[in-house]
Task: structure prediction
Amino acid sequence: MNPPIHLVLSAADWLNLFGHYLLLSLMSIGGAISTTSEMHRFLVEQQGWLTQAQFNESVAIAQAAPGPNVLFVALMGWNVGLNAGSYTAAYLGVFVTMVGIMLPSTTLTYVAAQWGYRNRDLRAVRAFKQGMVPIVIALLISTGMILGGANHNLSTDWPLWTLSIVAGLIIWRTKIHLLWLLAAGAVLGWYQLV
Result:
């Protein structure tokens, strides 16, 4: 793991982080992972609160660990807090990012699911569900582009891109369980083919 950067975060910075994650929560159609590209832009490129390595490691560790997919958000908050210089700030980072990403989407999902279930036979409800599919796919592709472009160099990243495209096609066109594809990706990574 790379050494942390040293930040001085004010109360306004923590509020800015919380507010940004509140907004991301409302964009997270398909799960928090679908907003990873915006998290990257905000945390790494705009604010400089995380390094590229810390960002990638947060996503990779959380995806490898058992449990909810959203744990990468907690790790990003943890790393922002550690970069601010203390474990107290790290716990605050976890709290701010997790509450920010969970509160609006959970509330909206609960209310919308109740309404949608009561009105499931309406044509507009069925059309809405079908219309959301391309948005979710586009958000997941943008996440794959951020994570797959580790070196920002096509001559070195082409195996990752090829593997991502092939895995996407296999998932789409077959009934092979996702865990088999993850295992195949792990084997390819073990032998440093991707």
Notes: The chain has a mean pLDDT of 87.
